[in-house]
Write a structure and sequence with these properties.
By secondary structure, the protein is an all-beta fold. Helices cover 0% and strands 61% of the residues.
């Protein structure tokens, strides 16, 4: 993404920054028709926006992490 037209440095590409993500999960079958999915993730990336002088540049880092779950009942047909 390039700097927006409202920025002092409009059209300028931001510098390359490292971004990474880690995720994983497991499926567990508890009963013949019941399965549970569990997953975890962690994401890190740079945050770009306009500063007080109107320049588009990196203002910080965004980090997110969490756990996701779901259960599914697959009954007999």
């Amino acid at each position: 993404m390039i700097a927006p037209s409202s920025a002092q440095n409009r059209g300028e590409p931001p510098p390359a920054t490292p971004t990474w993500q880690v995720d994983g999960g497991a499926r567990v079958i508890l009963r013949p028709y019941l399965q549970v999915l569990v997953g975890a993730f962690k994401v890190h990336k740079s945050y770009f926006s306009l500063n007080t002088a109107g320049r588009y540049l990196q203002l910080g880092d965004l980090r997110a992490q969490g756990i996701e779950t779901s259960a599914t009942w697959i009954g007999p047909e």
